[in-house]
Amino acid sequence: MVTTDNTTLSDLQKQTVSLTCTDAAGARTADKITWTIDDPSICSVVDVSPPDPTSQNMLIVGSKPGTTVVHAAVGEVRDDITVTVTPGPIEKITASFGPPEPK
């Protein structure tokens, strides 16, 4: 079983997701989780797993505002994470002046 939640990030914000796979008896397994993203322009996923083969950590990075689904799968077992990326705070305003209007 793969167990995850949904998350909301601002653009360029990052969040670590820790995943474990368990068998029918509840014992952790070392199965490798594969990832796909419906719209990879909204977020990306980077493997930042520790050496422990029964735990996998993925870093979700917001890229641009929108909502997408990240799919985690091991064989036929899968779970989905809905990722919503919101605009980050405004950090700078730049004014550009055109030529003066004629009188």
SS field, number of helical segments: 0
What is the CA-CA span between the terminal residues?
73 Å
The CATH class assignment is Mainly Beta
Strand content: over 45%
Oligomer: single chain
Structure report:
The chain is mainly β and 103 residues long. The chain has a single domain, classed as Immunoglobulin-like. Helix content is 0%, strand content 48%. It contains no helices and nine strands. The chain has strands spanning 7-10, 14-19, 21-22, 28-29, 34-37, 43-47, 56-62, 66-74, 77-86. The protein has a four-stranded mixed sheet with strand order 1-9-8-5, with no helix packed on it. A three-stranded antiparallel sheet has the order 2-7-6, with no helix packed on it. A hairpin with a 2-residue loop joins strand 8 and strand 9 (77-86).
Brief account:
By secondary structure, the chain is mainly beta. It is built from no helices and 9 strands.
Structure characteristics:
single chain, 103 residues, mainly beta, Immunoglobulin-like, four-stranded mixed beta sheet, three-stranded antiparallel beta sheet
Q: What are the SSEs and their pairings?
A:
Blueprint: E1 7-10, E2 14-19, E3 21-22, E4 28-29, E5 34-37, E6 43-47, E7 56-62, E8 66-74, E9 77-86
Parallel strand pairs: 1-9
Antiparallel strand pairs: 2-7, 3-4, 5-8, 6-7, 8-9
